Amino acid sequence: MKSTPEKKGEIVIYRTPEGKMELEVKLEHETLWLHQYQLAELFETDRSSLVKHITNIYKTGELSEDSTCAKFAQVRLEGKRRVTRQVLHYNLDMILSVGYRVNSKRGTQFRIWANNVLKEYLAKGYTLNEKRLREREKELQTLKTGIQLLERSIMKQARQLDQAMTFVNIIAGFSEGLRILDDYDNERLDSAGITEKAAVVICYEECRGIIGQIRDEFNSPLFGKEKDESFKSSIGQIYQSFGGKELYPSIEEKASMLLYLIVKNHSFVDGNKRIAATLFLYFLDKNSMLYGEDGRALIDGNTLASITLMIAESNPTEMETVKRIIMSILNRSSKH
Questions:
Q1: What pLDDT does residue 173 have?
Q2: At what angle do helices 230-237 and 251-265 cross, to 10 degrees?
Q3: Which residues touch 93 (CB under 8 Å, ≥6 apart)?
Q4: What three-state secondary structure class fits 200?
Q5: Within 13 A of 53's CA, how many CA atoms are on the CB side?
Q6: Measuring CA to CA, how many Å separate 181 from each of 38, 130, 154, 184?
Q7: Which value, to the nearest 10 degrees, does the dihedral of the CA atoms of residues 216, 218, 222, 227 take?
Q8: Which secondary structure element, helix H or strand E, spans residue 91, and what is its range?
Q9: Rounded Cα gap, residues 212 and 119, in angstroms
């Protein structure tokens, strides 16, 4: 005899052809279940007679109790109290076996209805499983793309040993998150940030001021010189909403997209990556997320330089993967 948690399964309604009776039938483990009182009502018999038939069916070995009987948690009103009781239920095999003995007409009617319900249920289950499989395949491809991105960045950008080690450290940091090589069901790149609060808005003029402050550090008259309006667009895009909902609801998503857009839009004649990294840190700081509770930086300089280079080396079609890598770094740093 099996015991099943309360919140599993579905409830379907059975109505007799004449419409005089309705029963809430539990759909679980690819079969239908009724408790004794429902069986008695369905077959228009008393419960004591029903129990005798069930006992005889088990005694003769026609059906196995282990495979046809289960306890399901059920909430009941007892006086003014709502209590949960473990109630015996019987599956379709037992329902039909009893029906043929007690009321063959009702048994036939229920069997026809049950077959249609189960066909629909199994077809629905197949569709859902197929959808989940496609989603897992897509997730697998996303993670593979992430690994390829990191490897490509190492090969193209690491000219010095210490720089190469920075990239290796990123991969090492993702070793747990990218355990897809062993079990990709349990470890996934994060698809959303974890800090959903109203973001402090940084405006275009404010960002231009930051660029002006760091220009002196770089010996280039073209540093921070805008080529078009794309820089202003990058800043505004992270705060966009549609249908009353923000496109990037978390701080991590906004920060990731800000870094990505400034790097990939190539808004400046010189300094795109340096400006992107600086404003990324500035945005986190304005939203009180640059440092953790222990005073440790949420993201260190080497990691920031590495993911900025990774963005630069990525293809536009890889944007979603890049964004999820950055969010995963931010999310997991916040949890530590």
A1: 44
A2: 170
A3: 31, 63, 67, 68
A4: coil
A5: 21
A6: 50, 22, 20, 7
A7: -100
A8: strand 81-91
A9: 68
According to the model, what pLDDT value does residue 131 have? 60
Angle of the 272-286 helix axis to the 204-215 helix axis, nearest 10: 120
User: What pLDDT is attached to residue 263?
Assistant: 93
Task: Give residue 177's region: left, alpha or beta (phi > 0; psi -120 to 50).
Answer: alpha
Q: Quick one: how far is CA 239 from the chain centroid?
A: 23
Amino acid at site 9? G
Order of strands across the sheet that contains 22-28:
2-4, 69-78, 81-91, 31-35, 22-28, 10-15
C-alpha dist (Å) from residue 218 to 215, 226, 236, 274: 6, 16, 26, 10
| Residue 101 tokens, joined | 């003995």
Instruction: Report the relative pairing of strands 69-78 and 31-35 from DSSP bridges.
Output: unpaired
Q: Which residues of the chain have pLDDT under 50?
A: 2-8, 126, 158-161, 164, 167, 170-171, 173-187
Non-local (6+) Cβ contacts of 174 within 8 A are 146, 150, 325, 328
CA distance 229 to 227: 7
Q: What is the pLDDT of residue 89?
A: 93
CA distance 248 to 237: 9
Query: pLDDT, tens digit, for every residue of 148-164?
Result: 666 665 555 544 445 54
Paired tokens of 332: 């997991």
Tokens 């077809």 sit on residue = 123
SS3 label, residue 268: strand
Q: Quick check: helix, strand or coil at residue 239?
A: coil
pLDDT in tens, 198-215: 889 999 999 999 999 988
Q: How far apart are CA 118 and CA 121, in angstroms?
A: 5
For residue range 14-66, list pLDDT tens digits in order: 888 877 888 888 888 788 899 999 999 998 888 998 999 999 999 989 899 99
Contact 34, 90 (CB under 8 A): yes
